[in-house]
From TrEMBL:
This is FCD domain-containing protein. The keyword DNA-binding applies. The keyword Cell inner membrane does not apply. It comes from Massilia frigida. InterPro entries: GntR_C, TF_FadR/GntR_C, Tscrpt_reg_HTH_GntR, WH-like_DNA-bd_sf, WH_DNA-bd_sf. Keywords: DNA-binding, Transcription, Transcription regulation. Residues 18-86 form the HTH gntR-type domain. It comes from the Bacteria. SMART domains: FCD, HTH_GNTR. It holds the Pfam family GntR.
Amino acid sequence: MTSTFSAQALPPPRKKHRTLAQGVVEHITGSIQQGVLKPGDKLPTESAIMEQHGVSRTVVREAISHLQAAGWAQTRHGIGTFVIERSNAGLAINAESIVTVLDVLAMLELRISMEAEAAWLAAARRSEAQVAELAKVLGAMQRSVARGSPAVDADVQFHLLIAQATGNRYFVDILSQLGTTIIPRARVNTPQLGHDDPVAYLERVNREHEDIFNAILRKDPEAARAAMRTHLSNSRERLRQAQQQLESNGA
């Protein structure tokens, strides 16, 4: 197949060109992940994308090429480019297998290493728009805490937005597949198991989220990594203590 770029020289500087294309890719993949664009939907025309993002046709074509290579889209010649269903068959994690407290503890161990690094990358790479989205979700969680609501969906979205801010789709792939199973209280009643006050529990969790957000806001990768590690390690410790209490009661 003939390259769509063969007739045009790539404009200098190359780094800036890649950044423009990546911006288009992130916008389109974000729309897909948020359900604005669904499998089977046709992407806007090259001209429409050019106008929306203020970029050249070459940049748009490079962005489309990246989307195709990543399995987000497929071009049908003479018709257009369409969103396609991405396969997660290569991932070995089955969300439905995360059932017991021990399963959730094991998942937290994985997340500590994975999401601490994601937070580092997010702080280094995030855009102003991504920070604004994080602030919006953090506000939703704070309002939920005030109402005594567990805010599981907002919590999931907070972690997904951080994954998206890394610019690495594999972080997003794994967290998206796991869904609400990444939030311990979505599977087990951690405050109840640990004989903890639910509101105080949620307030502690929310303060940890604020620490992560503030580090990303400051573009401080090391602080973001440390805050995420602290947050997930605290979640693991709270759940471990709850599990011990559960085992003691059953002894």
